[in-house]
Amino acid sequence: MKKMKSALSPARISRLFSRLKRAASLLRHDPIRLRIAVLERLPFLKRGLETTAQRWQPQFSNPPRISLLDVLKLRFLLVAGQERTVADFLGTVTCPPATSRNLAREYNAILNVVARKNAVNTDRMFFLTFVCRAWLALSKKPAREDQILLSRNLLSAVTDGKTQNKKAIVEGLTNHLFDNEKTPEVDGDTRPTLAPGTVSAEAYENIFNAFLYDTLIGSETQGPRHPLFDKQFSIEFQENLTQRLQPWRQSRFYSDFVRSDEVRRQERQRATVFPRRPGPTRVLIIAENWNFAAPLLNSLANAGLEVRTFSFEDFKAKIEAIHGQGHFYLPDAFLPPKDTVRGEIESLAPLLDELIEWSDVVMTDWCKRIALWLSRYLRDDKKLVVRLHSQEAFSNWPYSMNWGGVDGMIYVADTVRRFTRAQHGERMSAIQEITLPNVNRCQSRPPSLADEERRFVIGMAGYNTANKNPVMALEILRNLRRGDERWRLRLIGHPWQSADKLSEAERHHRHRFMELLEDPLILGGVSLEPFSDAVEDWFGSIGYTLSCSEREGTHEAAVEGMCRGAIPILRNWPMLSRFGGPAAVFSGLDHLVFDDVDNAAAVIKREHQRFAQASSRASEYFSNNFAPEVVAPKYAAFLEGIAVGQAKMERMPLQTEQTAGVGNT
Amino acid sequence: MTPHRPRIFVLHATLGSLQPISGDRIETIRFMKTLNQFADVYYNSMKFDPSRDDLGLHEREVTPPVGDYDLYYVRANHAFFKQLPSPKVTMAYPYEPEIFAEADAILVTTSEWKRLLENYNEDPVSRTTLAKWYPAEGIVNPKRLVNIRQTIDPSVNGVSSKKIDLFRAQLTNGDAIGYFGRVTEESMPRIFLSQYSALRKKYPRIVVAMAGNIRAKLSPDVLNLGRIDYADMPNLVRACFAIISNEEKDAEFLGSGKVLEAVGAAIPIITKSNPVRDEQLGADYPLYYTTPEEAFNAVDDLLSKPNVATEVQQILEERRRIFSVEAQGRFVAEGLGPILP
User: In what order do the strands lie in the sheet with A544-547?
Assistant: First the structure.
């Protein structure tokens, strides 16, 4: 009995959690939930924890950083019902746990647990931590009592959902931040600038994040993802874009970034540009993942360019070693001198340094971390081109870009270009731009099955997210099968994750999907096929590629389908419909775009009547607009133009006389 | 009449099932694929099926063999081995006197290993070479030593051009020289790496990349790809311009799966010369080195002399046939013939 009442030592706690983690792994159970569940159900453990919690006095170091032991303690405190103490602790963490991904995951799990227990969404919890960290980083010598009091107030503000309080807190923090500025004169420019000596990078970063999440983007959305990925919020944001963007454009953060853009632009204009050596243009591609960039390598080489690559994965840890996590995407005033950073890169990443030296143009795939870093630190005499996909248009990465460091933009779709420009266009006016689809690997080939075997078969590649909207696909099938039971829907891709791993919105969609599968009219008309890397033949065996998505950049499946004669049936993607929707991506194919289930069924039935003609026109459309030999030379011309400073701004010239009217007759 | 196919029971250590997640396990799987050429193979009493992704195996507790078998092969589980009836065979490592005495045959993967064991008790040089692995006072002479060699995994042929492109992108789209497997201070190919800067000076497209269980600090100009799935190795190997192999002492008698993988993919191997490489690649293979200068010259020749590249390709093609699963099946069947019914 005596033992049960005693506090648990950290070592014992650690051993216990290790065992539970192993058990979770064996049982394929979420490890955090299992541990919490077990602890909650064992009274003696809970008593031990309570004792521990009462005895535990958080030991603050300087600067406070979260450790594995802290994470363990936090878990216990949560189980012991000491949420206030947890909130206080979170308020002392000035840095997110950067030392290990696992630790970061555990830390985020704690936030999730706090959020669940307080019945608030995780987004608010992230907001809370931004704010808490910001406040702490801002205060040079914080008074402990004040700190804890503020943390409590913040937790109340967030958990009670008092948005006004929250806004007031952000405003207060922002004012506090900028009260610390001084006004030095730089090259005769008397505009206020930030003084790194009085405001720390951490304070700025965290208040900026809180500002973006709350003042600009709002934090009333579900889930930990970026709020703009939420359909309702995103549509509302787009409908009120000017109003939504006003706080950002009027903010001091914005003027800091604009000023940094201008300083960078001038630096690069002053740089000595050496005459280009003769020979093919040398392009260095740097990507965060290579799914869309890898097919470019051979295509650009075939188009006459020399191409080398560098993987951001190999470089990430090195950037973090130089800057600390995340701090490289702040305005200039907070960044270490460029010469210092470039010197460190030379020794830490000599391959990258040599490849940059070798190149005429550096192109990054994805407008994310590496693009942000290069926009600030790429050598002044080198050109930078950024390829931006739909994901980044919906994220806050572009807000933190230094657009003065960018020479060219490649947008993968015109919708993406329009949405990005609507948010950031005024900072991008000096940048050359072009819209070009991804270079794909497809080689035009006839369908693998005869028309008769395909004309009742609809296919959908990728169906395990609410964004893909497989529920709508099933509803379209049901509509079609009401008239003719020969209609079939083939879904290929990874299956849904188990419900406990999904967000509420995803879980709801999955549940509805599973329910619909049992519908007698649908049952027997659907096949779920496993993910495959080699889907060319699969596309050749379907008649139509269905795109029901809420948001797509290019929808590669529709393109790959056309390559093998499958007719694309395209929903007017709601999250991009204000910016042109699929009609802006697949110019001339407006007649294949639908708004709802009935409309989709009508489009399919119409194409079914002229299937052979529509299928061959789809193949032709691919050959004219998306075939690698058509697209790659356009990439090459743009990159060569950037290299010599003569790139032409243009959109992708989709459609031809012949294809513009596909099936309209 | 269908010829009799022996039934062979296999067990690797205490593993109820087997997945290709380490060198030893991969080696056992390849051996089972070889045995499967002439026998019905059962792993932990489950029918081995190389055509399936899971090899026909599922997680199951290790149990004594169910049914009768014509041969038992158990690796690194002495207690289990002792309970089995004859005929039974095991690998020559780890050494255990009782096991060496009891086994109907002891298996090795190279001729050199076999030679060193045959001479171990009489030859001090053999004892020195194998000092880390066998007792200084001598070993029990086995009833029979059989060299089973190593086999090119037939799945090496299952490649994806998409994945090769992805790896090329990770390898700077240059002339990548790969070094794969467990990378420690001891196994670092220092002779070759001493020439890396000089080679890059002459051929700027060259880049050395390492992948696998990396336990050593790599030079900043070496790419670290981390762990790669076994199923992706054929693609990674094909994304390389050449591979290098181990230089340490043990490599002079142990087999090397990575060399055979490269042979299967027709990717040149630049390797320190030793008897094992002679057995795998032939004595006339042109890309051997012993000194740093020879390592430099091997790469230089491969890049600058088309006839060397052609010769290498011819040799690799010939060696691919020798170590194919079909040829290996015949070779192993012959080696085990005297103890099989």
Answer: A526-529, A488-492, A457-461, A544-547, A567-571, A593-594
Contact A309, B169 (CB under 8 A): yes
Report the share of chain A in percent with pLDDT over 90: 45
Task: For A440, name the nearest residue in chain B, comparing CA atoms only.
Answer: B162
Name every chain B residue with its beta carbon within 8 A of the beta carbon of A285: 169, 173
- State if pTM tops 0.90: no
pLDDT tens digits for A385-442?
Answer: 999 999 999 888 899 999 999 999 999 999 999 999 999 999 999 999 999 999 988 8
ipTM above 0.90, yes or no: no
Pairwise CB contact (< 8 Å): B169 & A290: yes
Mean pLDDT, range A290-311, rounded to an integer:
94
Give the gap in angstroms from C-alpha A271 to the nearest C-alpha of chain B. 26
For residue range B296-319, list pLDDT tens digits in order: 999 999 999 999 999 999 999 999
Contact between B170 and A311 using a beta-carbon 8 Å cutoff: yes
- Name the phi and psi angles at A434, rounded to 5: -155, 150
- The model's pLDDT over A24-52, given as tens digits with 9 standing for 90+, comes to 666 555 555 555 556 555 666 556 655 65
| Contact (CB<8Å) B169/A295 | no
Integer Cα distance of B20 and B23 in angstroms: 8
Of B161, B174, B223, the CB nearest to A314: B223
Using the Cα atoms of residue A308, residue A313, residue A318 and residue A323 in order, give the sign of their dihedral: positive
Q: Which residue has the tokens 């050959």?
A: A623
Tokens of A501: 């791993």
Instruction: Please indicate whether, in this complex, the C-beta atoms of B162 and A441 are within 8 angstroms of each other.
Output: yes
Long-range contacts of A63-66 (CB under 8 A, 24+ apart): A63/A94, A63/A95, A64/A92, A64/A93, A64/A94, A64/A136, A65/A93, A65/A94, A65/A95, A65/A97, A66/A93, A66/A95, A66/A96, A66/A97, A66/A103, A66/A107
Which chain B residues have a beta carbon less than 8 Å from that of A350?
220-221
B166–A348: do the CB atoms touch at under 8 Å? no
Task: Give the containing element (helix H, strand E) for A387.
Answer: strand A383-388
Q: What are the residue ranges in chain B where pLDDT is below 50?
A: none
Check if the beta carbon of residue B57 is closer than 8 Å to that of residue B26: no
